[in-house]
Specification:
Distance between the termini: 59 Å
Helix content: 25-40%
CATH superfamily: Ribonuclease H-like superfamily/Ribonuclease H
CATH architecture: 2-Layer Sandwich
Shape: globular
CATH class: Alpha Beta
InterPro entries: Ribonucl_H, RNaseH-like_sf, RNaseH_sf
Protein name: Exonuclease domain-containing protein
Order of helices and strands: EEEHHHEHEHHHH
Radius of gyration: 18 Å
Largest sheet: 5 strands, mixed
Number of helices: 8
Number of strands: 5
Structural class: alpha/beta
CATH topology: Nucleotidyltransferase, domain 5
Keywords: Exonuclease, Hydrolase, Nuclease
Strand content: 5-15%
GO molecular function: exonuclease activity
Length: about 210
C-alpha cells in the first residue's frame, strides 16, 4: 500500500475528515458516518465509522443508487442520540474536511446543534482550483485523476462513508502537493466562504 505523502502544510494542524450517508428522506437522517482524525501521517486503521438506525426508513432509491445500505443492515444499530456525544467529541475543535463539504456541514449542524467548527475545508472547491478544467469533479473521477490509494478500503465500496472519507483525505493530500500549497493558500482555496477572513478594504484617501 502506497500512501500519499503527508503535506508540510498540515503539520501541527488538527483535522477531522468526514463523510455522511443519509436515509434519503427530507429532512435527511444520518445512517452512516465515518471520521478520520488527522494529527499527522495516518493509515486507514485510524478510520472510525458508525452505522445508525434512523427514525424514518431508508428509501429504496438511495439504497439502490447511492450507498447500498438497507433497513435490515440498520435494524440492530444504535439510534443517533446514543452516538451523538461520542461523534461531537471527536469533531470538537478540529477543522472539518469533506468532499462537497456544504452537505456534511448542513447535515451535521442539524444533528449536532452545539457543534461549531473553527474551519471547514472542501476538497471539491480545492480540486476546481488545483485541477482546473476537468469534465467532472465527482469523487470517483478525482480518485482516477489523482491515482489515489483506495485499495485499503475497497471492501466498503464507493459511497460508503469509510471509503469516501479515506478518499477525501487522499485527495486533500494530493491537491496540496500538486498545488504546492501552504496553509494560508489552502484555506483560501478550500475554505467555505463564511469561514474565511473578510478581505482587506481597498486603499483610499482615508
Amino acid at each position: 500500500m502506497t500512501l500519499t505523502p503527508f503535506p508540510n502544510a498540515l503539520h501541527e494542524r488538527q483535522l477531522a475528515v468526514v463523510d455522511v450517508e443519509g436515509n434519503g428522506q427530507n429532512p435527511p437522517e444520518i445512517i452512516e458516518i465515518a471520521v478520520l482524525l488527522i494529527d499527522g501521517p495516518t493509515t486507514p486503521d485510524a478510520l472510525r465509522a458508525w452505522l445508525i438506525q434512523p427514525q424514518q426508513p431508508v428509501t429504496s432509491i438511495v439504497t439502490r443508487k447511492v450507498h447500498g445500505i438497507t433497513n435490515a443492515d440498520l435494524a440492530d444499530c444504535p439510534p443517533w442520540h446514543d452516538v451523538a456525544e461520542e461523534i461531537e467529541e471527536a469533531l470538537c475543535g478540529r477543522a472539518l474536511v469533506a468532499h462537497n463539504a456544504t452537505v456534511e456541514r448542513k447535515v451535521l449542524a442539524a444533528h449536532l446543534p452545539d457543534w461549531n467548527p473553527p474551519l471547514i475545508l472542501d476538497t471539491l472547491r480545492l480540486a476546481k482550483t488545483v485541477w482546473a478544467g476537468l469534465d467532472s469533479y465527482a469523487l470517483d473521477k478525482l480518485i482516477e485523476r489523482g491515482n489515489l490509494d483506495t485499495d485499503s478500503v475497497a471492501g466498503q465500496g464507493y459511497h460508503r462513508a469509510g471509503y469516501d472519507t479515506w478518499a477525501a483525505w487522499q485527495l486533500l493530500c494530493a491537491l496540496i502537493t500538486d498545488g504546492d500549497l501552504e496553509w494560508p493558500e489552502l484555506v483560501t482555496a478550500a475554505g467555505l466562504p463564511e469561514f474565511l477572513p473578510a478581505p482587506e478594504p481597498e486603499g483610499g484617501l482615508w
